[in-house]
Amino acid sequence: MNIENNIDLELHRLRKLAWRMDAIFTIPRTRITVGLDNIVGFIPVAGDLLTALPGLWMINRAYKLGASPGTLAYMVFNTGLDTAIGMIPIVGDIFDMLYCANIRNYNALERSLNKNAARAKTVRTASKSLEWQHPSLLT
User: Fold this and answer.
1) CA-to-CA distance for 11 and 110, rounded, in angstroms?
2) How do residues 69-108 score in pLDDT, each as one tens digit?
3) In whole angstroms, what is the distance from residue 114 CA to residue 51 CA?
4) How far apart are CA 58 and CA 76, in angstroms?
5) How far apart are CA 134 and CA 52, in angstroms?
């Protein structure tokens, strides 16, 4: 199994987690989704602290996959905001349903990895071009 397959598998797992946490089902006739984060979040304070754990795990995996520092900071901010505001009764539960921090974090991770991959492809293409023109420059 090559590294590209490993990354695809990891992204699939993270996407599944994000959607389970934020969007298991949609409230009929709206665009509002409900996930485990919202359901467990109804337990005051403890529920929101418990639902922060998958978000922190996702941040750890993003770090290991090579997400940019800016993306990691954004993910930490989203998870912290979701946890802090989620602890406020009623207002926090509504915020959790509308904000979907885990899906935001997954999307940010995917964008970051795509940028890294595009940048690597550009560098690889440039080095091959350089090698073809001047092999001595790459030694």
Assistant:
1) 8
2) 999 999 999 999 999 999 999 999 999 999 999 999 999 9
3) 27
4) 10
5) 53
